[in-house]
Design goal:
heterodimer; A: 133 residues; mainly alpha; B: 114 residues; 82% helix
Chain lengths: 133, 114
């Protein structure tokens, strides 16, 4: 049930879905951290964190992002898709700074810049390959 | 960070890489045809099992250590996955994509180590 790519179907475009997925995963990671912090350390394999509603909300977003990811994998090479989803590593530190008050050091900003550069380089040949289709 | 934490972080990433390769194989259009559907369903379920193991390990690690200490280990994944996709799925990427993955890997390590 993959829709034919067209301007009207931009929402179903693999890149749009990948971007939505990156936002869902970021929100999920922050919620899981919030849930884990609320419960505190202890217990095996994080099962105790299920006591927090934040953890469950994080899980719900994660499950949605999973179907989103399967959709992306139908059309995109795994290596490319996973490189692009590294946008999460840009969004999570920024989200953690905004919502969890974690600090972003100069070194971390450099890392964020390198990841963004990598994403730009990675998306170019893919876009070119798609033009041929 | 203890040696145990580092070992668990790496084990975590192995589950993720294996799970993702299985998912990609299951979702590939070629798997849907030619009577391969049963293998696709099996790989999808195995992939989900691997990612479930990854998920609970991950939440457990997040519970014990700071997000910013644990998160760097995900930096291994783009590199591991592009290699795994090349070896097991036959994905061929242009040299620029390998450069991009190297940039992302270094970037994630910097983000995580600060």
């Amino acid at each position: 049930m993959t829709p034919r790519p067209s301007r009207a179907a931009w929402f179903f475009n693999a890149y749009t879905q990948l971007a939505i997925g990156a936002l869902l995963v970021t929100a999920s990671e922050l919620l899981l951290k919030k849930g884990a912090t609320a419960v505190g350390p202890g217990g095996a394999f994080g099962v105790a964190t299920l006591a927090s509603g934040w953890t469950w909300l994080g899980i719900v977003l994660y499950v949605i992002s999973f179907f989103n990811w399967l959709y992306v994998l139908r059309v995109m090479p795994l290596g490319v898709a996973f490189g692009l989803i590294s946008a999460v590593h840009v969004l999570v530190p920024i989200g953690a700074a905004l919502f969890l008050h974690e600090e972003i050091s100069a070194r971390r900003w450099i890392g964020i810049a390198l990841i963004l550069a990598g994403i730009i380089v990675l998306s170019r040949p893919v876009a070119r390959a798609e033009e041929k289709l | 960070m203890t040696a145990l934490a580092i070992a668990l972080c790496i084990l975590c990433q192995v589950f993720l890489v294996v799970g993702q390769v299985l998912l990609k194989h299951a979702m590939a259009p070629a798997t849907e045809s030619a009577g391969l559907r049963a293998i696709g369903v099996r790989n999808l379920l195995l992939g989900i099992a691997c990612l479930t193991a990854w998920f609970f390990l991950w939440v457990g690690l997040l519970q014990q250590w700071e997000l910013s200490q644990i998160f760097p280990f995900e930096g291994l994944n783009p590199a591991l996955l592009v290699i795994a996709a090349w070896l097991f799925l036959g994905e061929r990427l242009p040299p620029s994509a390998w450069v991009a993955i190297a940039l992302i890997t270094v970037g994630v390590v910097l983000v995580s180590s600060s």
